[in-house]
Write a structure and sequence with these properties.
By secondary structure, the protein is of the alpha/beta class. It has a single domain, classed as 6-pyruvoyl tetrahydropterin synthase/QueD (Tetrahydropterin Synthase, Chain A, 2-Layer Sandwich), CATH 3.30.479.10. It has a six-stranded mixed sheet, sandwiched between helices. Helix 1 crosses helix 3. The radius of gyration is 18 Å and the shape is elongated. The relative contact order is 0.19.
Length: 152
Amino acid sequence: MSKIRITKEFKFEMAHALLGYDGPCRNVHGHSYELKVTVMGEPITSQGHVKLGMVMDFGDLKRIVKVQIIDVFDHALVLNAAMPKEITSHLHNSFEKVLLLDYQPTSELMVIDFARKIKANLPAGIELISVLLRETATSYAEWLASDQGKEN
């Protein structure tokens, strides 16, 4: 049977600030992110299987990404946990959804984090191929399994 890739697309809103950055993105600002997740597997061929002909139910992939990424990051203010505590304490007291990450919240590092979380929750036989995180109409970061080496 042939290996087939399927892709599911998502959108979410998020604000962030880049700690120590030397440009305008050091200030709190937001983006309308687009996320594309591509997985690969063999279509199910077992007659009578409720998912006959599918690599993976798009609804199942949607649930994984929604729980691991969208529900967490959508409409959140995302900051590096190294941000001064007086700032983060005030933000936590003032806003409902402030996330402090152990990394700088750039598209590059977020796409690595997203790939790790999605990959860990995929069913057996389904391979994560790519995760593309579009930050603006002209800028995106992309994680590709083929670039990761054998240990990943």
